[in-house]
């Protein structure tokens, strides 16, 4: 693992010796302090001499203060130093307070050395950039676009949250990129080598939830023909992203709370719990705090998953990012639709189209922008998308979206949403007739339809016609 230096802060000699031996066997040199004063002195001396610590492990209760005070001091003066806090078993409130203060993670007494070693290994990854080229490639795959002030703030927050193991709750409207934010928190953190497992909580049938989340043993119920790992086991060592967590039924909320507190799951039909090392990130477009007041979401679970909240801004709050986002989406759609060595350049947006997009409130956010541009590609003639190709609701929507977050259903805009399947069938029938008349010559069919060959190709791709 290389040469590392750790600071141990605990007033119990036995704990200091245990930590010194455990870390020593991992190739980590240690310095020990009995209280806050000694810890502050060692940190200052190390900083002045250029011998920086790579990790700090501190007890919560110290003779002259608390571990939270040390975490806050390190956050102010040594922000790149990860801190792990030793807490009393079962005292989740204190553990959460350390995470809120900026601790990397916590470990409970009596110390489980396997858990401790895993924690130390992950913390040290923050001090040493990954050497595996495949890890670097994976980390560069996901990008959060936009240079607006809200997006700059989001990127800075993501970088900070990636250095912690605290549960993060990502709030925001549908289509704002909450899963992308969660992936970036995972990719930029010490768990990037392990799996990122996203799950839509509203998409799992209620009677299968326990098996899907925790796994099951062979014969535990009808149809259980073999042992099966659940989502927690699949995410072991990595991150579990609970999308639309508000859709979890109350009985599953109770079970999830226990898993988070005990860091262990019991598969359906199993007699014993098995430990899991998983970071929990969650998201929903619903107002969780309001659901707590309505007793539709457990308050204790809310405070466990909402240790740190990160709000994903709506697209209308960062309208200056729209041109950059649109260019990226057009390039991606063009690449997806084209096959073979020859490729056409992606279409561009005219000035009036960009202006119209900038004034549209986007109730569906980035996801809606993608749908609008995909439709515009199939409608535009030539290689420039005009404002008329966007088919936005008329007149241009200057008022904010409805309070429910749903686009009003009056006027052309609302009708076009409900007519999409119907119009899609008509479009497919028309294209198929043109292909039949031209003996499936796409160039001739496009000419017969009065559209470009590229537009026909986009339409065929969208309609799933080979």
Short description:
The protein has 466 residues and is an alpha/beta fold. The chain has helices at residues 13-25, 36-49, 67-77, 92-101, 113-125, 133-139, 149-161, 178-187, 209-214, 231-234, 250-262, 288-293, 299-305, 322-337, 351-359, 365-379, 387-390, 411-437, 442-449, 453-463; strands at 4-9, 28-33, 55-59, 61-62, 65-66, 83-87, 105-108, 168-171, 196-200, 239-243, 264-265, 274-275, 279-284, 308-311, 348-349, 384-385. It has three domains: 4-125, Rossmann fold (3-Layer(aba) Sandwich); 142-311, P-loop containing nucleotide triphosphate hydrolases (Rossmann fold), CATH 3.40.50; 316-420, Helicase, Ruva Protein, domain 3 (Orthogonal Bundle), CATH 1.10.8.60.
What do these coordinates show?
- The chain folds into three domains: 4-125, 3-Layer(aba) Sandwich (Rossmann fold); 142-311, Rossmann fold; 316-420, Orthogonal Bundle (Helicase, Ruva Protein, domain 3), CATH 1.10.8.
- The chain contains 20 helices and 16 strands.
- It has helices spanning 13-25, 36-49, 67-77, 92-101, 113-125, 133-139, 149-161, 178-187, 209-214, 231-234, 250-262, 288-293, 299-305, 322-337, 351-359, 365-379, 387-390, 411-437, 442-449, 453-463; strands at 4-9, 28-33, 55-59, 61-62, 65-66, 83-87, 105-108, 168-171, 196-200, 239-243, 264-265, 274-275, 279-284, 308-311, 348-349, 384-385.
- A five-stranded parallel β-sheet has the order 2-1-3-6-7, sandwiched between helices. A five-stranded parallel β-sheet has the order 9-10-13-8-14. Strands 4-5 form a two-stranded antiparallel sheet.
- Helix 4 (92-101) links the parallel strand 6 and strand 7.
- Helix 16 (365-379) packs across helix 20 and helix 18 (411-437) crosses helix 19 (442-449).
- The longest helix has 27 residues, at 411-437.
- The two termini are 53 Å apart.
- Mean pLDDT is 85; it is low at 129-140 and 398-419.
């Amino acid at each position: 693992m290389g040469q590392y230096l750790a600071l141990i802060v605990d007033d119990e000699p036995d704990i200091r010796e245990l930590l010194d031996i455990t870390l020593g066997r991992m190739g980590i040199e240690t310095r020990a302090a009995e209280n806050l004063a000694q810890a502050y002195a060692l940190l200052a001396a190390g900083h002045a001499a250029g011998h920086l610590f790579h990790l700090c492990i501190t007890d919560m209760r110290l003779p002259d203060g608390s571990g939270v005070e040390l975490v806050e001091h390190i956050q102010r003066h040594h922000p790149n130093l990860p801190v792990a806090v030793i807490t009393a078993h079962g005292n989740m409130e204190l553990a959460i307070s350390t995470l809120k203060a900026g601790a990397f993670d916590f470990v409970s007494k009596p110390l489980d050395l396997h858990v401790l070693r895993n924690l130390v290994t992950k913390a040290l990854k923050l001090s040493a950039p990954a050497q595996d080229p495949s890890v670097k490639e994976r980390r560069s795959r996901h990008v959060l676009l936009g240079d607006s002030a809200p997006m700059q703030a989001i990127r800075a927050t993501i970088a900070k949250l990636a250095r912690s193991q605290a549960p993060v709750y990502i709030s925001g409207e549908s289509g704002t990129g909450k899963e992308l934010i969660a992936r970036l928190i995972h990719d930029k953190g010490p768990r990037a080598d392990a799996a990122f497992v996203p799950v839509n909580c509203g998409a799992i049938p209620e009677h299968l939830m326990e098996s899907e989340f925790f796994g099951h043993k062979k014969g535990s119920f009808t149809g259980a023909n073999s042992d099966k790992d659940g989502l927690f086991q699949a995410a072991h060592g990595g991150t579990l992203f609970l999308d639309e967590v508000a859709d979890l039924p109350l009985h599953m909320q109770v079970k999830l709370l226990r898993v988070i507190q005990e860091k262990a799951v019991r598969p359906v039909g199993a007699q014993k719990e098995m430990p899991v090392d998983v970071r929990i990130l969650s998201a929903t477009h619903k107002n969780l705090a309001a659901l707590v007041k309505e007793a539709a979401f457990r308050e204790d679970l809310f405070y466990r998953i909402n240790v740190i909240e990160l709000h994903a801004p709506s697209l209308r709050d960062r309208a200056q990012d729209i041109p950059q986002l649109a260019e990226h989406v057009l390039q991606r759609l063009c690449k997806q639709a084209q096959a073979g060595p020859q490729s056409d350049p992606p279409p561009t947006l005219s000035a009036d189209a960009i202006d119209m997009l900038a004034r549209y409130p986007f109730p569906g956010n980035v996801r809606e922008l993608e749908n609008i541009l995909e439709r515009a590609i199939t409608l535009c003639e030539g290689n420039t998308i005009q404002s008329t190709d966007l088919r936005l609701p008329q007149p241009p929507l200057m008022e904010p979206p409805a309070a429910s977050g749903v686009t009003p259903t009056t006027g052309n805009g609302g009708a076009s949403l409900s007519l999409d399947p119907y119009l899609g069938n008509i479009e497919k029938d028309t294209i198929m007739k043109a292909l039949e008349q031209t003996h499936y010559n796409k160039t001739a069919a496009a000419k017969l339809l009065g559209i470009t060959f590229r537009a026909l190709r986009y339409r065929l791709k969208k309609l799933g016609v080979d």
